[in-house]
Amino acid sequence: MPQVALFLLVSLIKVVLVIFILLTAVAYTVWLERKVVGRMQNRWGPTRVGPFGLLQPLADGLKFILKEDLLPPHVNKPLYIAAPMIAVAMALLSISLVPFGGTITIHGYTTPLQITGLMNHGVPVDINIGLLIILGVTSIGVYGIALAGWSSNSKYSLLGGLRASAQMISYEVSLGLSLVGVLILTGSFSLREIVNHQAGSILNWNFFGGLQFVAFFIYLTSAYAETNRIPFDLPEAETELVAGYHTEYSAMKFAMFFMAEYANMVTVACIASILFLGGWSGPVPSFLPPILQSLVPVFWFCLRIFGFLFLYIWVRGTLPRFRYDQLMAFSWKFLLPLSIANIMITALVVALK
Amino acid sequence: MLHEILFFFFAAGCVAGAINLLAQKHPINSALSLIVVMASLAGLFLLMGAEFVGAIQVIIYAGAIMVLFVFVIMLLNAGIEEHTKGSKIAIILGVPGAAVVATLITWILLRTETSNTPISIGQLHGTGADIGRLLFGPFLLPFEVTSVLVLIAIMGAVVLARREDA
Known about the structure:
The complex is a heterodimer of chains A (353) and B (166). By secondary structure, chain A is mainly alpha-helical.
């Protein structure tokens, strides 16, 4: 088979596999959230469908597909239909830049464990500006929510959309600036290089060795706001806005917003582990066959992501919602100065070393 | 070959977005067309090897600034635009004016274009490291002056928006 066709085939397999695993992960994050929050609130969570309610995501998905897809008469039709598509497309797009591990060799063909990566003289490389592209894609994803709020032509939706766009712009600033410390330490935007830079022991991680724990805190907080999670879920605050920007959405269109939110959570967790927690680094036992040896790092990576998702749920079960002025003041008066101070100190340390 | 196809794809997106921006009656549709223009420009930057500028174009212009545009349009709940006498004059004078400007630019470009040797992406100076070295090396003074200019604009906005009694 010619080299180009083989490359395309392998890329296609990777795309299908990653999207399938991501969507499954999204569905089971919802299950995990209901289960964990249930236990935190002295409830059982889903128990009826399958053992431990494990088939609940399937039942939910079926219900979303089979329900009537209402198109309210008062909406701006093209934008109303496009908005959930933008949200879910941008959420799925950003995962394509995330590296999940080193390389894998099957029947003599070596390929990096990443959709947008290729082998260059036997070394896996990815896009030079991977991190920037992820930030760009995330910033386009805001339109999904903003337009959903506007095109629904309902005051609750509009307020939700307005809140979402204001909140996401504010927190994007501190989110972007919190990454600069890591970039100064690494000297590259490439996600793969950032991970390679932290290889070795746990002390090489940017969180410990790079002393980026302040940046990590800022990133985590901003990421919660970017993904509209409690305590920053004001765009969909149900006590004030019914359901915020997706009030007028039903069936699969509503599910698309839901999927986008959880897919964004997964991506944010991926970025956090790559930038601060050493990516897929971890002990790889050498007695395993080569294929398993290349998949063990993926397991370590997924373990970190699971940790982040659990933290998300834990925070949801613990913290109450912010007030809107508190939310804005927290971003501009606390996180922004803190992240600039972090950049200055990191730059000073790097310059003096 | 692929390079040309991509160039014409993004160039067409850019021009179509710009024309649609003018043709649309509703401000939010115009703003969305402007996003298409910005994103296509980012594609053109990437084709020229200016990967950092391309990515920043998406993050800052298509992402942040246009979200603010859309935000303001949503906040003011702006309706369909009205055509006044001034806008009709603008159409009558603007179309020939735009044609003249486009012809001039094409003419100048065709006259000054001397080198046709293709160079590969790697030979261009577009990576983040290159841009950083340029900004903090030979262009340090303009860079800092621009940042002061932006700071002045921000302070001006704060002064204008501040309440009288505070």
